[in-house]
Amino acid sequence: MALKAVHVSDVPNLDQVQENAALSLCSTRFTNICVNDHESGDHDVAFKFPKFVVMGHRGSGMNMLQSSDRRMKSIRENSILSFNSAAKLPLDFIEFDVQVTRDGYPVIFHDNLILTEDKGTIIEKRVTDLTLAEFLSYGPQKEAGNVGKTLFRKTKDGKIFEWKVEEDDPLCTLQEVFQKVDGTIGFNIELKFDDHIIYKQEEFEHILQAILKVVLEHAKDRPIMFSSFLPDAAQMMRKLQKKYPVFFLTNGGSEIYMDVRRNSLDEAIKVCMEGGLQGIVSEVKAIFRNPEAVKRIKESKLSIISYGQLNNVPEVVYVQHLMGIEGVIVDLVREITEAVSDFNNPAKAGVESRLFGKEGKLQLETLISAEFSADNLHLSTDFVVLHS
Fold it and tell me: Is residue 318 part of a domain?
């Protein structure tokens, strides 16, 4: 696949990139990941991905119902169909969101609220207030002839869309995902909590124990990692188990929270070191705003991967690899896995000619502008144009 036309927003200046940085980008799956004893004692274990990893966001990519890009409405996100479709591609993990129903069942759903319509009125209910049966009554049904409640979705700006996709699939539980999704694909399990609720420690423990029970019973040899935006949830999961790595999710200051631990990459480092976590999952713009933090993260023996819409731009993924980022979570799974494969074959992709000069030195001016602001670092809805 040739990378002919890519819309790239501003990418910040990098102080230094090694001229001999290895182009070890690949997406062949590895069969196992684990945590290893860390000799320095800074935190209980250190972890490192064996190679640069690509993870499918909510499977084959999140749904953006307001987008004009059909790819963002192709397959229902966070579904068995989406996960298995992604697993057919050369990526390493799928990322998905887990919440626990009122009667204690871990289910896969991103939004805190689930919406349907009754006689022209939109009805909102909190996922965690529903029983499993109530949750599964939304959307397409497994049993032929059964009709579920029509799903709607509210965007951040308050607009409501009927949740229509080209290939639909029923809602599912965490246990079903383990049982029905290709066993070779890794799971990045996001522990989903509501930012507007203050949770007690016993609530965290009850929710996380329900999730952990399913994981320990069904994971077998599947690569697993946990992640969460809530510091206390991430640290609690680390206390409850030592088998799988736990990462702290942060947007690195793109939004400001009352909990200062969520407001910067340096605070994220503290959360990890204090809780014995293995790494950070950062919004990509936070990394570009503060590239020096990557060095501090590495010095702390922590892993770092990124998420965000900019990760759907192949050149942005490439620059992160040169910076030492260990992996990316992406929506355009097919395009990015193909691009990552092209990075290993510069003659095919034209990567060398675009990024390197005659002497083999990286021409950062092709990708990087000296200064940028949060306002102009954005990706439009139609954020990437890739031609095969």
Answer: yes
Element (H, E) at 29: none
Establish if 369 belongs to a structural domain.
no
| DSSP3 helix / strand / coil % (the chain, rounded to 5) | 30, 20, 50
* Residue 202 host element (H or E): helix 201-218
pLDDT band at 342 (very low <50, low <70, confident <90, very high): confident
- Give pLDDT tens digits for 189-244: 999 999 999 999 999 999 999 999 999 999 999 999 999 999 999 999 999 999 99
Higher per-residue confidence, 338 vs 136: 136
Helix axes 292-299, 265-275, angle to 10 degrees: 10
The residue assigned the tokens 């502008």 is 369
Within-domain flag for 281:
yes
Amino acid at 133: A
| DSSP-derived secondary structure letter, 150 | P
CATH number of the structural domain spanning residue 179? 3.20.20.190
What is the count of structural domains for the chain? Answer: 1
* Residue 80, both tokens: 């068995």
Entry pTM: 0.83
Strands 93-100 and 106-108: what pairing?
A: antiparallel
Q: Which residues pair with 346 in a beta bridge?
A: none
- Domain of residue 207 covers 42-111+169-343
91 lies in some domain: yes
